[in-house]
Write a structure and sequence with these properties.
The chain is mostly helical. 88% of the residues lie in helices and 0% in strands. The protein has three helices and no strands. It is rod-shaped.
Length: 208
């Protein structure tokens, strides 16, 4: 294709689906087209230079020989002036083409470097973001684990305190129950003795 500097400037690449940046294959294909076009322009420049060199050495004598009989006439000076003008125009065209080729090559290199740098910057940004996300997730997990351990330890301390309270209550309850039973036994024993004494007194009075 006939590639122009505007084609390079206005070229737009497709975004990739699975990562940030441009499609590397598409960029490489476009650069291959640029290289082909640059090689074609370089070859044309070489051919023009060769034609200019051969035209300057061989065409002038032939033209001079053709107009030799008419040297004294007016057209002879015109031929001598027209040849340098045409050569200068051809040389200017070759120089302009060479400058255009150099500019196109520099532009292609600059675009390639920009695309590579942009892809590297996006890659580094994604890696940094991934590391930050991983660090945040780990920190959140560690914080959650510490909070869960603190909660479990607090519940354990509460349960142990409740067990101590129940043991104390059981001890006090057993002591109180023992005291109550002993008092009841003592009271029952006293009541039995008093009953026996009363019965014995009543029996003695009945016999007298």
């Amino acid at each position: 294709m006939a590639l122009t500097p505007d084609d390079v400037v206005n070229k737009r690449f497709s975004q990739t689906k699975f990562r940030e940046g441009y499609d590397q294959d598409e960029v490489d294909d476009f650069l291959d087209e640029v290289v082909v076009e640059l090689r074609r322009l370089t070859q044309e420049n070489e051919e023009l230079k060769a034609q200019l060199a051969s035209g300057g050495s061989s065409s002038a004598p032939a033209e001079a020989a053709a107009v030799a009989p008419e040297v004294v006439e007016a057209p002879a000076p015109v031929v001598e002036v027209a040849a340098p003008v045409a050569a200068a125009a051809t040389a200017s065209a070759v120089e302009d083409e060479s400058v255009s080729t150099t500019n196109l090559l520099q532009l292609a290199r600059r675009l390639h470097d920009e695309h590579v740098k942009e892809g590297a910057d996006k890659r580094d940004a994604l890696i940094a973001e991934g590391h930050a996300t991983a660090a945040r997730i780990v920190a959140e997990a560690e914080t959650k684990q510490r909070n869960e351990l603190a909660r479990l330890n607090q519940e354990k301390a509460g349960i142990e305190h409740r067990i101590d309270e129940l043991r104390t209550f059981e001890k006090d309850y057993r002591a109180g129950l023992k005291t109550y039973i002993e008092d009841q036994l003592q009271e029952l024993t006293s009541s039995s003795v008093d009953g026996e004494k009363s019965a014995s007194s009543s029996f003695s009075g009945f016999g007298g």
